[in-house]
Design brief:
Layout lengths: L10 E5 L6 H12 L2 E4 H14 L7 H10 L2 E4 L7 E4 L2 E2 L7 H10 L3 H13 L6 E5 L2 H5 L5 E6 L2 H14 L6 H17 L12 E4 L5 H15 L1
Bound molecules: 2'-deoxycytidine-5'-monophosphate.
The site of 2'-deoxycytidine-5'-monophosphate has 14 residues, from helix 2, helix 4 and helix 8.
Length: 229
């Protein structure tokens, strides 16, 4: 749980499935409000990369949790293009976005011991003047007292098409079918796990971004935020 001394610090939780636009929306909302940004997916991804790089994939869970707890990861949110992540001083921002790292992140995210290992770091990022927290369980489990909880979603087809455009821009060719399959598999794993499954908080504002521009999504979130303040 968040420490009582941090509870007066406002949090906007933005949860939802991969590719719904949470990352960009969270970054833009944080920038417009001058808030800190927590990309919790990047935390799971860097933990996954650390496990893959250290060859610990098939080790007992205790050994994996120990490695995740002691990994040296840094999240730099000062730039204009999202969170930059350093692992052992090495800039791994791009490597975190590969399908392999994403798949592994989704696998380890179903382990309760991994989730609690990352929880303390997530709570320490709640700092003045406020925090925009992007993930799957920000509103349901990590910051249940968030002032505004958004569940941002989009159809699986649109999310696959967005991912394909991103990969094409990086010069990578991947078929829409395989991306759609990956997205559906990850959605199913994230939604059906027993610990902190992907689901809207009971009091979440649900926004479907299918066919909606990111600027409209951001304006919608900010207008609700200003109403509630
Ligand atoms: O948002 P993302 O695609 O970067 O997240 C990578 C994986 O991490 C995703 O498959 C599920 C997991 N995750 C999670 O379980 N809880 C969070 N708060 C954030 C991410």
């Amino acid at each position: 749980m968040a420490t009582s001394s941090a509870q007066h610090i406002p949090v906007i939780a933005i949860d939802g499935p991969s590719g719904a636009g949470k990352g960009t929306a969270s970054m833009l909302v944080a920038r417009r409000l001058g808030f800190h940004l927590l990309d919790s997916g990047a935390m799971y991804r860097v933990a996954a990369l650390h496990i893959l790089r250290s060859g610990l994939k098939d080790q007992p869970i205790e050994r994996i949790v120990e490695a995740v707890t002691s990994m040296r990861a840094r999240f730099d949110t000062s730039g204009d293009d999202g969170v930059r992540v350093l692992l052992d001083q090495d800039d791994v921002t791009l490597e975190l976005r590969t399908e392999e790292t994403g798949g592994m992140a989704s696998e380890i995210a179903s382990e309760p011991a991994i989730r609690s290992a990352l929880l303390t770091t997530q709570h320490t990022m709640r700092q003045l003047p406020g925090l925009v927290a992007d993930g799957r369980d920000m509103g349901t489990a990590v910051f249940p007292d968030a002032i505004l909880k958004v569940f941002l979603t989009a159809s699986a087809e649109e999310r696959a098409a967005r991912r394909q455009r991103q990969l094409n821009q990086q010069g990578k060719q991947v078929t829409l079918e395989s991306l759609l399959q990956d997205i559906q598999a990850r959605d199913s794993r994230d939604t059906n796990r027993t610990v902190s499954p992907l689901k809207p908080a009971a009091d979440a504002l649900i926004i479907d971004s299918t066919g909606v521009s990111i600027n409209n999504v951001v304006d919608h979130i900010l207008s609700v935020w200003h109403e509630r303040r």
